[in-house]
Design goal:
The structure is a homodimer of 232-residue chains.
Chain A (H helix, E strand, L loop, with lengths): L1 H8 L6 H7 L3 H6 L9 H22 L5 H11 L2 H10 L10 H5 L6 H19 L1 H11 L2 H5 L8 H9 L7 E9 L6 E8 L2 E8 L2 H13 L11
Antiparallel strand pairs in A: 1-2, 2-3
Cofactor (chains A, B): Mg(2+)
InterPro entries (chains A, B): dsRBD_dom, RNase_III, RNase_III_dom, RNase_III_sf
Catalytic activity (chains A, B): Endonucleolytic cleavage to 5'-phosphomonoester
Chain lengths: 232, 232
């Protein structure tokens, strides 16, 4: 475990008991009563709150113009059982969980709910051992790059965001125009541009017009990254 | 506002724009469009997550033996609209909110939901200005003393906790015995002691047997504050 953490994340946990606790399920504790072990649930309680804050702070600072409702939706897309269990698998955390025999036979090691718990308890242990900055570094390795690679895109409606941002100071025309259809018939692609007040702000491609429009809106949003709205 | 914060909490916020934002409701922004103001909601989003973590960490470390389920219930008792709006009033935050005229007439200044938001947004501003340690200090002034004064006691079942802690290594008899009824007929009081394995561990008084038992259990729990279970 320590070798893997060092190799993959440049993390060295100094308190090994904490790390053991974070990867031990109650079923294992019950089968080894003589060893006076602890299971992960308390550390998971803490790790859950740490992840909420670290993700909240990151998107709060990165998306300066995103209103609260959309920050809340984006956080919910990032902080949930599906994404955390995916991260746990990518980090190979499933290989290190200590399970009782019955849980092992029941394939608990592949259960999303357990993997999500373990991801949170690992973060709790990292936080207790090394503080928030270490958790932030870990999130920059594991979670935040997924924002750019599009893992949460289905929860992230760029067209709505562009509308909110561009029309903050009053109504302005936002139009999407199909530029081109291309590619073979069985793999048709669309290219769409977005115009704000008749000026081109972005262009995007996708397998559907909807996807191309989202990409175009995403590109246009880069023009609004500063707090200066006088670009228009 | 700054004078009050300095006097009551020894807090000096260096970024005044942040503080203004934290205490400004959307209705006020709408009535002063020329001033290019921001309202509190984004900072509240962050403050909410900060409070979740700071409270979680405090109870995680203070109640070393409390299992996850009870930590979660205790946090829910501390982190909610009712308690946060109470804290906001105690801090006199209601006097500093900037509201639009309609909201003022509708008594929004006394609305629990708004006061809860403002408590969170103040914490968000404090966090952005000075970091987590400053928020912890503020919580030690405003929230955590309430644990000792009993504000959250109705959510905190000491009898169940004592049972969980005392029986961790196996079954042991826990008995509550009425010692005495005292006081005038219209203000009857009860004194109850708790015995663990026939040894007295605590005594409590209350206006009902149930209340006296809770107090006795709370006192008994002090014997289990260390991780050494061999006291029995």
């Amino acid at each position: 475990m320590n070798e893997m953490l060092k190799r993959d994340f440049d993390i060295t946990i100094s308190n090994n008991d904490l790390l053991d606790e974070a990867f031990t399920q109650a079923s294992y504790v019950n089968e080894h009563k003589d060893q006076n072990l602890k299971f992960y649930e308390r550390i998971e309680f803490l790790g859950d709150a740490v992840l909420q804050l670290v993700v909240s702070e990151y998107i709060f600072k990165r998306y300066e113009r995103l209103p609260q409702g959309r920050l809340t939706r984006l956080r919910a897309a990032m902080v949930n059982e599906k994404s955390f269990s995916t991260f746990a698998r990518e980090c190979h955390f499933n290989e290190y969980i200590r399970l009782g025999k019955g849980e092992e036979r029941a394939n608990a090691r592949d259960r999303d709910s357990l993997l999500c718990d373990i991801f949170e308890s690992f973060v709790g242990a990292l936080y207790l051992d090394q503080g928030k900055a270490a958790v932030e570094k870990f999130c920059h390795q594991v979670i935040f790059p997924k924002l750019d690679s599009g893992m949460f895109d289905e929860f992230f409606d760029h067209k709505t965001e562009l509308q909110e941002v561009a029309q903050e100071d009053g109504p302005v025309a936002i139009d999407y125009e199909l530029v081109e259809e291309f590619g073979p018939a069985n793999d048709q692609m669309f290219r769409v541009k977005v115009l704000i007040a008749n000026k081109e702000f972005g262009i995007g491609e996708g397998h559907s017009k909807k996807e191309a429009e989202q990409k175009a809106a995403q590109q246009a949003l880069k023009h609004f990254d500063t707090s200066n709205m006088n670009l228009l």
